Amino acid sequence: MTTQREIPVTYEDQGHFLHFGRVLLVKPGETTLPIRYKRFANIIYNFDYRRDDVCLFTFPKSGTVWTAGIIWAMTHMEELERAKTESLNNRVFYVDNDFIQTFKDQDHREKLKKLCPDAKEEDGVVLQLAALEKGRRIIWSHLPFDLQNPDVLDKCKGSRAHRIQQHERSSYNVPQFRKLQRVLLSHWPSGIVEGKIPAGT
Question: N or C of the chain: less Cβ packing under 10 Å?
Answer without folding.
Answer: N
